[in-house]
Amino acid sequence: MSNMSYCRFQNTAGDLQDCLHGLRDMIEGESLSRDELEAAKRLVGLCLEVVTDVSDAGGVDFMESFDNGSIGQRLEDAIDEMQEEAEGMEALDEQDDG
């Protein structure tokens, strides 16, 4: 079942944290079923897409930021900027409708 749009990131963040623990357990020697292994591969690919999209949208040079250790903060800043832009667009839409 899909997450409701008002809580999808809240719910998914907890699930993603659980998956991270599962991947770390795998590093420690706990294997996954074939289906879970394929899903883990898809998940890692999606995570890369998320990071790439946020980097691109926020004008973040991913490799440079990664190399100097600032990537986490830079991506958080990019998400904040994306939110501000989205809120501005919503406000304009409301003005046009009202």
Helix/strand order: HHHH
Large-scale geometry: flat
Q: Which bin fits the share of residues in helices?
A: over 70%
**Rg over alpha carbons:** 17 Å
Percent of residues in beta strands?
A: under 5%
How many structural domains in the coordinates? 2
Mean pLDDT: 87
Counted by DSSP, the helix tally is: 4
Query: Strand tally, please?
Result: 0
Largest sheet: none
Low-confidence stretches: none
**What structural class is derived from the secondary structure elements?**
mainly alpha
Distance between the termini: 35 Å
Structure description:
The chain is an all-alpha fold. The chain has 2 domains: 1-31; 33-97. Helices cover 80% and strands 0% of the residues. The protein has 4 helices and no strands. Helix 2 (34-58) crosses helix 4. The longest helix is centred in the C-terminal third of the chain and has 27 residues, at 71-97. It starts with 7 loop residues before the first helix and ends with a helix.
Which descriptors would you attach to this protein?
80% helix; 2 domains; mainly alpha; flat; 98 residues; 4 helices; single chain
Walk me through the topology.
Layout: H1 8-27, H2 34-58, H3 62-67, H4 71-97
Helix pairs in contact: 2-4
Quickly describe the structure.
The protein is an all-alpha fold. The protein has 4 helices and no strands.
